[in-house]
What we know:
By secondary structure, the chain is of the alpha+beta class. The chain contains 5 helices and 8 strands; from the N terminus they run αααββββαβββαβ. The chain has 2 domains: 6-61; 70-209, Nucleoside Triphosphate Pyrophosphohydrolase, CATH 3.90.79.10. It has helices at residues 6-24, 28-49, 53-61, 108-120, 190-201, and strands at residues 70-79, 82-88, 94-96, 99-101, 122-134, 148-160, 168-174, 208-209. Strands 1, 2, 3, 4, 5, 6, 7 and 8 form an 8-stranded mixed beta sheet that branches. The longest helix has 22 residues, at 28-49. The N and C termini lie close together (9 Å).
Amino acid sequence: MSEEPLWLVWAREIQAVAQTGLAFTRDPYDRERYVQLRRLAAHVMAEYAGIDAQRIEMLFAAESGYATPKLDVRGAVFRDNRLLLVREAVDGNRWTLPGGWADVNASPAESVVKEVREESGFDVRIVKLAAVWDRARHPHQPIYAYHIWKLFFICEIIGGEASAGLETNDATFFAEHELPAELSISRVLLPQLQRMFEHVRRPELPTEFD
Length: 210
């Protein structure tokens, strides 16, 4: 069950119907109706979220093709039973797992390896896909206009050294009992980090989902 308000779930669904309809329709009258649906979804989000409707509609208009979730990839990098976190300069210096949006023409694993290198300075090898979580089913904040799936990979270091990135200003390893309270909860949650420790302790655990 989604952790997000129903108005957001419904508005996203309206937007997805509109986007997919615009991708496949050949009827000019249907196209006009789908544009109206997209505008309606933007106004619903604007009314409840306090965001400018025109800005949301422009974001929606930039999306084309069959509507699918966006992918966020995160690397859980361990050394000596300690987990690597990076500090986000754009989010009040809060801590998170290195990661970001998956890149076009790169696999999820390639994307997370790149993100870890850019944000922390470490070269890593993927050991395991630990979790595929629907962001809407976990209490992340703030809310997003798009539906997002989050992929968490267990990684091991094969080279490099800790360094800041363009969007991060620190990279530090934490024991499980030392995990910081100042987390970037838009990106990661404490229970998710704790599950990464559990996957390292019990490598036989299956990949978690939803």
